[in-house]
Amino acid sequence: MDLCTLGDIAPLVTNRSGPIHKPLPPDRYIRHGGSAEMRWESMRGQGYHVPNDLFFVRNHTVTPTIDARTWRLRVHGDALRHPRDFTYEDLLSLPTTTLDVAIECAGNGRSFFATQQGEPTEGTPWRLGGIGVARWRGVRLSLLLELAGITPDAVDVLPVGLDPEYTEDGVNHGHVRRPLPAGKAMTDVLVAYEMNGEQLPPDHGFPARLVVPGWVGVASIKWLGSIEVATRPLESPWSTGFYRLPDSELTAQVVKSAFELAWEARLPAGRQHILHGRSWSGQGRIVRVEVSTDGGETWQRAHLRGRPSAAWAMWHFAWCPRTPGPYKLLARAVDETGAGQPARAPYNPRGYLFGAIVEHPVIVE
Ligand SMILES: Nc1nc2c(c(=O)[nH]1)N[C@H]1C(S)=C(S)[C@@H](COP(=O)(O)O)O[C@H]1N2
Ligand SMILES: [Mo]
User: Fold this and answer.
1) Which of 128, 172, 221, 348: disulfide with 159, CB 3.0–4.6 Å?
2) What is the atom index within ligand 1 of the atom nearest the CA of 224?
3) Which residues line ligand 1 (CB under 6 A)?
4) What gap in Å lies between CA 231 and CA 218, rounded to an integer?
5) Is 266 found in the same domain as 225?
6) What is the pTM of this model?
7) Looking at the structure, do residues 114 and 179 belong to the same domain, yes or no?
């Protein structure tokens, strides 16, 4: 066989087409066009972090293939004394920081506006699987901006992705990008190149992505190509059009809870079941979780596992259903700021921040 021909074919085989590179087995993921959410029952028995092969993917277009050897992160703008490029090697050689952080789509839970509240919205009909917690390792954005000589009058920071330009309804909005106030950029934001101890996977932003703790997922720009730092406010369609609430900006995530159970899971009657779940908030640690198995008439405390941690809380609850039939399981959490989960989420046309209590159907038989 001609080895040269083989060499030509190999890259075509490894360079998969399609919007997402990694496998999306249907027993672990629900597909939504070019995006995919994890099935919560797949989290049963997992540790604190969502494995890379289960982590949800939200792509505006497609996962690009980027060569780290020629990749550069361009840091520029009028609020920098030394604008400069960073290579992949530069990033790897700088002091590292490791953080457990949740990334969650602002539209996570959106489908419940329609199914629970009778308020259909535009956008991907996520259930609750548009969230994941990973251990991210990389360089603090503040360090890169200091190396580039950020000035005290910096106002906004605009990270831009290298994935293809995004077109909606015939309008080209350009590359995915969304400004962050300089204050947030200099506090706890990471330029991550590792996810759960592995090189950042292509679908999650290889070679480097932003990780913005507590904020809606769209702030965590993947496939970073450039970062502008300006002395004036910056904007993009992702801050002025979509990913905005009618009367306010969209920044921190709200409180949510999910059971590690299949939708319409079947449970034998007359036996004790340990129901497992997780709760999270963009604003602080979860301090209390309650579960109701009677449609919200009565609530009981769930047991939190371990010490409260910022990314999410793991909990369990013992339930012994005696009577067969359909049930709705409810979980609600409260974070350290006192924020909880209401019975109804405030409606907004694009269906962001569904923080109401989700009714999880199960069948006892
Ligand atoms: N460059 C770029 N960054 C992006 C996106 C994108 O499409 N392109 N999607 C954003 C959105 S809306 C979310 S919710 C998160 C999802 O991150 P994940 O795919 O790693 O789970 O990435 C954000 N960063
Ligand atoms: Mo998102």
Assistant:
1) 221
2) 1
3) 55-60, 103, 105, 161, 163, 176, 204, 217-218, 220-223
4) 23
5) no
6) 0.94
7) yes
